[in-house]
Amino acid sequence: MQQDKPHFHGHRERLRQRLLDNGTESLADYEILECLLFGANPRGDTKPLAKKLIAEFGSLAGVFAASGEELQKITGMGIAATSILKIVPEAARRMSKAVLLEHPVINSWEKLVDYCQISMGHEQIEQFRLLFLDRKNRLIADEVQQKGTVDHTPVYPREVVKRALELNASALIMVHNHPSGDPTPSAADLAMTREVKSVCQKLGIELHDHLIISRSGHSSMRNLQLL
């Protein structure tokens, strides 16, 4: 007696063909996860796990922002599947950074914001990042200087300036994230920024901006006329 084929028989081929024929835009969020999980589960049905991940973390972006530990708590997520999902945001970050490096940073503001959004918009703890620029406003270095808690990151102005001098940077942009989702600068953010700016000015280093990034958007202290 012939055994019934699994209900998902041929589904992978159809999904892959749709991707090739119609582009990635034709895929739903869970279908993107399905395709990624094919590599970790070469024979099984990955649709239920893909949908479970979306339900657990709220969105495709939420899945990619989840930590390895959080992902592996989901039944069906082993080391192979977790590794695949964790490499995707890093690949996106590197691609975005490569685009940013092609032009002076201050002339590529939208690309800068995109890069910061990819790098830290969905981080669950506060992260303080420094972008060091040369005299032509090209990126010398991109460094995470501090990590904190869900609502606070300690920042030491002298350490910021010390690193700028070590790199022979002429300017810098400060960036940090608000895990709460609200990119509005706090009073503490403003006070710290003004302190850093004061120290920078004494040494001839320009503070171009302080960006605050969140999963829902961003704010620029310069655009808000707070610098």
List its salient traits.
alpha+beta; DNA polymerase, domain 1; Cytidine Deaminase, domain 2; five-stranded mixed sheet
Walk me through this protein's architecture.
It is built from 9 helices and 5 strands; from the N terminus they run αααααααββαβαββ. By secondary structure, the protein is α+β, with helices and mostly antiparallel strands. Strands 2-1-3-4-5 form a 5-stranded mixed β-sheet, with helices on both faces. The protein is elongated and about 65 Å long. The N and C termini lie far apart (77 Å).
Explain the layout of strands and helices:
Elements: H1 11-22, H2 29-38, H3 47-57, H4 60-65, H5 68-72, H6 79-100, H7 109-120, E1 127-133, E2 139-147, H8 157-166, E3 171-177, H9 187-202, E4 206-214, E5 217-220
Parallel strand pairs: 3-4
Antiparallel strand pairs: 1-2, 1-3, 4-5
Mean pLDDT: 86
CATH architecture of the largest domain: 3-Layer(aba) Sandwich
Q: How many angstroms does the end-to-end distance come to?
A: 77 Å
CATH topological fold name of the largest domain: Cytidine Deaminase, domain 2
Classified in CATH, the superfamily of the largest domain is Cytidine Deaminase, domain 2
Rg over CA atoms, rounded to whole Å, is: 21 Å
**Overall tally of domains:** 2
Poorly predicted ranges: none
* Beta-strand content bin: 15-25%
How would you sum up this structure in a few lines?
With 227 residues, the chain is an alpha+beta fold. It is built from nine helices and five strands; from the N terminus they run αααααααββαβαββ. It has helices at residues 11-22, 29-38, 47-57, 60-65, 68-72, 79-100, 109-120, 157-166, 187-202, and strands at 127-133, 139-147, 171-177, 206-214, 217-220.
